[in-house]
Amino acid sequence: MIDLGISKLALIGAVALIVIGPEKLPRVARTVGALLGKAQRYVADVKAEVNRSMELDELRKMKESVESAARDVETSVSSGVNDFEKSWSEATAGLDGQASSGMDDALSALGAPVYPAYKHPGKNWRIKQTAMPQWYKARSGVRTRALSGAARVARYRPRSSSASR
């Protein structure tokens, strides 16, 4: 890089003052400053672009390493699941969900209770999920019976003073 000290800058300024002249020197100085600013911004943009590309390469490498690790985990889990399914099928090979009659006799001879196979009730449990019990309605003051308009008027009509005579 160029080594510019104060003495060299003063010499350059004096030569510029003599060559350019005092009238044009401020305009030339402004132009040179603007050009130097543009050059610095351009260099900064180039540096930022290089840094971004380097970070992008690093991120790509990291992404590839994470993807390979995920693939390794996936293969190990799938092989573990396959091993488990194989051992489960071997362990449950003789069981088909219902005990045979010979098995029932053997279990009852040992005194173990024999339970029937599970059968799903087949009910639709969602039908009355939002139904509110009567005791809750009574406790919280929810109306359980609808009144007609005439019945409501008759029930809530203010008592007349003639009834007290």
Automatic annotation (TrEMBL):
Q: Is Transit peptide given among the entry's keywords?
A: no
Name the membrane topology term: Single-pass membrane protein
Keyword Protein transport carried by entry = yes
Its keywords, alphabetically, are: Cell inner membrane, Cell membrane, Membrane, Protein transport, Translocation, Transmembrane, Transmembrane helix, Transport
Location in the cell reads: Cell membrane; Membrane
Q: Which NCBIfam families match?
A: tatB
Q: Which HAMAP family does this entry report, sorted A to Z?
A: TatB
SUBUNIT field: The Tat system comprises two distinct complexes: a TatABC complex, containing multiple copies of TatA, TatB and TatC subunits, and a separate TatA complex, containing only TatA subunits. Substrates initially bind to the TatABC complex, which probably triggers association of the separate TatA complex to form the active translocon.
Protein's UniProt name: Sec-independent protein translocase protein TatB
What would be the name of the gene that encodes this protein?
tatB
